[in-house]
Amino acid sequence: MIEYDVLVIGGGLAGMSAALHAGEVGASVAMVSKVYPTRSHSAAAQGGINAALGIEDSWEVHAYETVKGSDFLGDQDAIEILCRDGIQDVFALEHWGVIFDRNEEGNIHMRGFGGTDKSRTCHVGDMTGQTILHVMYERLLRMNVKSYDEWFVTTLLMEEGACCGAVAMDITSGKLEVFKAKAVIICTGGCGRVYEPSTNGLIVTGDGLSLAYRVGALLMDMEMVQYHPTTLPANGFLITEGARGEGAYLLNSEGERFMQEERYGATTLEEKASRDVVSRAETIEIQEGRGIDGCVLLDCRHIKDRILEAFHQISELAIDYAGVDITQDPLPIRPGMHYMMGGIKTDIDGRCYRHNGDGSEPLPGLYSAGEAACVSAHGANRLGGNSLLDCVTFGRKAGVHAAEYASSINSPNISEAVIEVEEQKIVDLFARSTNERAPALRLEMGEIMHTFTGVFREEAGLLEAERRIHAVRERYPEVSVHDKGRVFNTDLLAVLELDFMFDCAETIIASALARKESRGAHTRTDYPERDDENWLKHVAVYHTPDGPAVTYLPVTITKWQPEARQY
Amino acid sequence: MIEANLKVYRYDPQTAQEPHYDTYEVKELPDFATVLDALIKVREDIDGTLAMRCSCRSAVCGSCAFRVNGHAKLGCKTKVSTLAPDGEEICVEPMGNMKVIKDLVTEMDIFWDKLKQVKPWIETVGEPPEREYQVPAAKMVELQQPMNCIMCGACVSDCTVLEEDSKFLAPAALAKAYRVVGDPRHGKTKEWLTDLSEEGGIWDCTRCLECVEVCPKDVAPMDQIIKLREQAIEEGLTDNIGAKHVLHFTESVAHTGVLDERMLPIKAAGWGWAVKNAGIAIKATLKGKIKPLLPGSHPSVTEVQDVRRIHEELEEGKRK
Ligand SMILES: Cc1cc2nc3c(=O)[nH]c(=O)nc-3n(C[C@H](O)[C@H](O)[C@H](O)COP(=O)(O)OP(=O)(O)OC[C@H]3O[C@@H](n4cnc5c(N)ncnc54)[C@H](O)[C@@H]3O)c2cc1C
Ligand code: SF4
Ligand code: SF4
Ligand code: FES
Fold first, then answer.
1. Of all protein residues, whose CA lies closest to atom 44 belonging to ligand 1?
2. A535 inside domain
3. B267 in contact with A at a CB cutoff of 8 Å?
4. Which of A214, A219, A536, B1 is deepest in the core (most CB within 10 A)?
5. What pLDDT is recorded for position A549?
6. Nearest C-alpha to atom 31 of ligand 1 is from which residue?
7. How many A from CA of A245 to the centre of ligand 1?
């Protein structure tokens, strides 16, 4: 049995931040990741990380714009911390060696992003996520933090109502081990692969959401799924918002800059409005027949020098996967699934919660941060550049709190026997000679989710999605593996991940069915208006044998009262 | 729609079967499909026992380096249509210089261990400022090149020196070392360079250019190594095994015209190295500690002529 004070599951930005800070306050800490930490999906973030460093900017403006971006569903205590304390976190990253782009004075250069007319997105060319992730990783090496690379967590362990560890498989050998810990921090990222297509990597399968859900944790805001306005039709790859931040236009088939139209409510920021607003507008244009093969156009021609200078990835992607030279022609793009605003409900210290009677209470020993978590800094719609910040800032807070909590309790009692249950599942799986394959089921799930729980939703469609996902899940026991060995069995991992993804899909649908209004990324055609009177509250779900059950949690409002949202 | 004909290296340590190749005809791939797309289709639809690493599909996570037709490449950055426009067979094998765990999955420990060895973090001196360090914009942009490394291992797979000498820090870690040493915020440049000048460090690269050719992210590790050498000499770090090797080597070439056996990982491609380093050492010997000329390009005929000329000059000098 392996034992630590704090076990961090996930080696992305959130996990690294949590592990670093838990270690710094003196806890014994280990990080477990199913891929080498630098392979985590945080590496894919191109655009940047927000911090109000400019003299014409302030953390209050950043916070207000984040609240407004969230369509007033974000918890304002969390948003204040994100925008105020996050500034120091960004400076810390700089001190550790992140090579942020500079202005002429040698200070951090910031670019424009969506949902604001300020330039507040700090960046490293178009490889911001990768750089921050690598610098953090190197920092962990410097601190000698133990990292279990290519270990796959299969289940969390509970003892007397508290989380006290996990079972994980060493992927290289296929061997299972028990990790005993006083506190566990889930930083497993989002669940993009539940959708097809998605901008997310193949490893982003919502494992942590499901792990927490199964031990009773509340999942919150799960209906809030962000569709990014500019993804490539061929494979779902992302074209960074930085392009619009630099002034790129969106055009319909008539060549009109449709974002200027009154009805989309963004006459001031136009293309730079929040993602939910732009994705909706694009979808309407396409539905009303002003699209081109299901796309609208991103026009970078008038800013081509700037694009070539600052975003070489975009021009490469456009040539490789669309055959378009963006300096000559506009690029067909469409909204695509990108980010989970929802996740494991936490407070500002990263603590997870469970349902009790008519309210909620902390689930001792369990923490979460990053995209897996929902401290609700993003509410119903996240601003670009706020997620990396969320990972770093709330990763830190979860790490510190978990370490302090761990120092206050005794070592939990767990037996090695728990391994046998997990082992048996694998043995049973190997014994199946049925014919369903995990990738085929995942694809079906992804298409159902995209069709019925995408940019626009309505009751009948959501019920249909619920039925169809249920039907696909019923076939899960028929899924078999080709590879019956234990060494680096990725076939087996795909089957285990599929099970996690079903939980994500079900909770997304249940939450979307529950919220009978339109807010942020959640647009119900049958309830087209925002309804503050009845719905200025979080939808949270918890696991029951009959599927997800819904409960509601209040929204924390500190300074900013809900108002009509215009860009 | 296009097709891919794959010949894939297979090895499973759990069976008695020797490593072998399986062939797959992968149909109905989109026109822009990469080698990785084809492999994923194999794994999903044809043969689930195939083990490999992949995630991002867009050349940022560094998971999918394989040897494709003999050279290390990122699967997700290598298009089927460019590699095999007429449906030619594409051979996919695991990376070199690493032990194979299963099929296309290699043990990467060697990669990470070397990375740790170069201490890939900056050490600032004194209290950090309240805000950010003020540093020149151009310097940060320059560091983007080594920072662009996604740790895929392709260069390590194909490094010719590593093949001969497992102690060599190899291209990726050394490129990372420049990312640290070249950072104006780093306060321990000399300390880092001293370590890097040890055996297995910056002086052991033969400049075969392999890493520059295979790197999918334009990191050009060899160029970073050259910058480290320049900086080491600038710092006066000539009194170490690496630099002494070079001096010894020059002597050996000058005296006997024959390569000292111990200097061989140089082999065929190494003549370029011999030429360049002879140049460095000769100049250093003649003029004391001087910044040498360290061009980053491939050895050329004129450079070979150069060394002959330098040889002669050296001979001349000795006669006087
Ligand atoms: C293409 C793209 C571009 C983006 N650009 C930006 C941007 O410019 N700015 C911004 O702020 N945000 C951006 N985002 C969002 C942001 O990158 C992510 O939300 C954020 O990086 C998530 O980080 P994380 O640490 O929560 O999770 P991840 O980085 O996804 O890490 C998850 C970790 O959990 C581990 N893990 C998962 N399951 C298991 C398991 N069962 N066992 C063990 N380990 C497990 C994984 O190995 C991994 O280490 C972008 C996202 C995408 C997809
Ligand atoms: S140039 Fe040097 S580091 Fe690069 S592959 Fe050749 S020997 Fe290795
Ligand atoms: S230097 Fe290039 S080839 Fe080597 S690991 Fe980095 S990205 Fe890969
Ligand atoms: S899959 Fe990420 S680099 Fe190829």
1. A33
2. no
3. no
4. A219
5. 98
6. A12
7. 22
- pLDDT of B299 above 70: no
Q: Which CATH architecture has domain B109-319?
A: Orthogonal Bundle (1.10)
Print the domain residue range for A237. 233-335
Same topology for domains B2-106 and B109-319, yes or no? no
CATH number, residue A257: 3.90.700.10
Reduced to 3 states (helix: H, G, I; strand: E, B; else coil), residue A492 is helix
What is the pTM assigned to this prediction? 0.92
Chain segment B19-47, per-residue pLDDT in tens:
999 999 999 999 999 999 999 999 999 99
Is the dihedral angle over the CA atoms A283, A286, A291, A292 positive or is it negative? positive
Query: Is B55–A35 a contact, with Cβ atoms under 8 angstroms apart?
Result: yes
Confidence of residue B284 (pLDDT cuts 50, 70, 90): very low
Quick check: A309 contacting B, CB < 8 Å?
A: no
Q: Which of A204-208, A331-335, B137-141, B274-278 has the lowest mean pLDDT?
A: B274-278
Q: List chain B domain ranges.
A: 2-106, 109-319
- Give tens-digit pLDDT for B146-170: 999 999 999 999 999 999 999 999 9
Give per-residue pLDDT as tens, B188-227: 999 999 999 998 999 999 999 999 999 999 999 999 999 9
Identity of the residue in A125, A138, A487 whose CB atom sits nearest the CB atom of B120: A138
Q: Which CATH architecture has domain B2-106?
A: Roll (3.10)
Distance (Å) from the alpha carbon of B240 to chain A's nearest alpha carbon: 26
Of residues A131, A139, A201, nearest to B61 (C-beta): A201
ipTM for this prediction: 0.95
Residues 393-422 of A with CB under 8 A from B: none
Three-state secondary structure readout of A269-322 = CHHHCCHHHHHHHHHHHHHHHHCECCEEEEECHHHHHHHHHHCHHHHHHHHHHH
Mean pLDDT on A275-301: 96
A541: in domain: no
* Strands lying side by side in the sheet with A49-50: A49-50, A119-122, A110-112
Structure tokens at B117: 């060895």
User: Tell me, what CATH number does A458's domain have?
Assistant: 1.20.58.100
Q: Does a structural domain hold residue A91? A: no
Atom 20, ligand 1: residue with shortest CA distance:
A42
Q: Residue B262 has what DSSP assignment?
A: G
Residues with CB under 6 A from ligand 4: B 36, 54-57, 59-64, 74-76
Q: What is the pLDDT of residue A307?
A: 86
Least Cα separation, residue A439 to chain B (angstroms): 6
d(CA A373, CA A22): 18
Report which of A141, A177, A190 is spatially closest to residue A36, judged by C-alpha positions: A141
Cα separation, B128 vs A96, in Å, equals 10
Mutate to test the interface with B, among A40, A96, A128, A130 (most CBs of B within 10 A): A130
pLDDT level of residue B278 (50, 70, 90 thresholds): low
Contact B95, B147 (CB under 8 A): no
pLDDT above 90 (res A31): yes
d(CA B197, CA A19): 33
A449 CA: distance to closest CA in chain B (Å): 20
Which residue did the predictor score with more confidence, A11 or A417? Answer: A11
What mean pLDDT comes out for the span B261-290?
42
- Domains contained in chain A, number: 2
Q: Residue A229's closest CA among A335, A138, A325, A328?
A: A335
Instruction: Please state the rounded mean pLDDT for residues B74-82.
Output: 96
- HEC string for A334-371: EEEEEEECCEEEECCCCEEEEEECCEEEEEEEEEECHH
Single out the catalytic residue among A139, A193, A244, A275.
Answer: A275
Q: Which residues in chain A touch residue B32, judged by CB atoms under 8 angstroms apart?
A: 234-235, 320-321, 323
The residue assigned the tokens 């997800």 is A548
Q: Are A101 and A360 in contact (CB under 8 A)?
A: no
